Amino acid sequence: MLTFRHLPFLPIDLPPRQVRETVFAINSVYKACAIAEAIRSDRRFWRETKADGSLVTAADFVIQLFLTRRLAQVFPGDVLVSEEDGQTLRSLSHSASRNVADAVRRFTPKVDPRFFLDWIHAGRHPPTSRYWGSDPIDVTSQFVRGGQYSTSLFLVEDGVVTIGVMGCPNLKLHCSPEKNRGELLVAVAGYGAWCCGLKEDDQFHRLHVSERDRLQDAVWARPLRDVSARQRSSYTVGDHELVTSCQKTFGSRTDDFIRESNPVRYARVAAGEADFLMNFRLSHLASGFYVHDHAPGMLLVTEAGGKGTDLWNRPANFRAPPTMRGNYGLFVSNGTPLHDEGLELFSQVARQVFSSKQLTALRAI
Fold this sequence. Notes:
By secondary structure, the protein is α+β, with helices and mostly antiparallel strands. The chain has helices at 16-41, 58-74, 86-90, 94-107, 116-122, 140-143, 229-232, 237-253, 262-270, 291-303, 338-353, 356-363; strands at residues 47-49, 55-57, 80-82, 130-134, 151-157, 160-168, 183-188, 192-197, 205-206, 219-223, 256-260, 276-279, 289-290, 307-309, 323-324, 330-333. It is globular.
């Protein structure tokens, strides 16, 4: 049986409604991280490849079920928009389905696995102006290897992310106490960004972006792979030239770079350990970016003093999940003037790669 410690609360005064929402999000992610680690360490640990080539595990489904049930109990009028759906669950092999059912019985013992699909579908309803979002396991490929991954939960109201929580069980930030292993990262719109150790820390510590204000002094938080194998298989000539040109141009203008999984890149920028990150919107990816991959991380950075836009300097669109429609790529940084310099450099590269007609079409996405 899993045991949980009493978590501290943020050292800020919030309105009563936001206190309830923030406590709910913090405790939910904290417990979801414990479930994820327990499933990953089980000798019967299972993983399977989905139709799109990405991995899925029992942890993805069980945590989504856990969060959906908690939301129904605490905020029964709200919906959860998350990554997995009933179609994926139905497509699993018999052994995989059995593994998921066993994990459901173990970690949510009051739920009959036969009703699991109903709970999964409960989170696929079209959202209203207020919805919760989650990525149960972000970067599943790293999760199965014991690497850097996260569990997240966030709240969106009228297109604005108001609360964002990420749990990163294998992360250690420089600004947190040495004893920390695993970070609980919390941001509340208008009240800052904070971190607390998942296992031992007894207080939250304020996060601040760095003060480096020029690209030539900046640390670039790059993904583990600038473009995944699945994306590369659908490359257009323009995509390939844009990505390679940005890699070369930004690489030659910046002081250093680090390679991290996607949620950890946001944490590094928010904590001042890196200064900016980029995500490319390749032309063949018609759906754009997924809200659950970026919403909590972007709030974390902006509440730590940074800035986040798409590559044409437009606000991130969280109004129509699951995708961020109308956004072309993302640029997230420690703020101006570095943000403006980075966007101008990207614009220069794009003008070299694409014709005026192509640029007009890309700006209209």
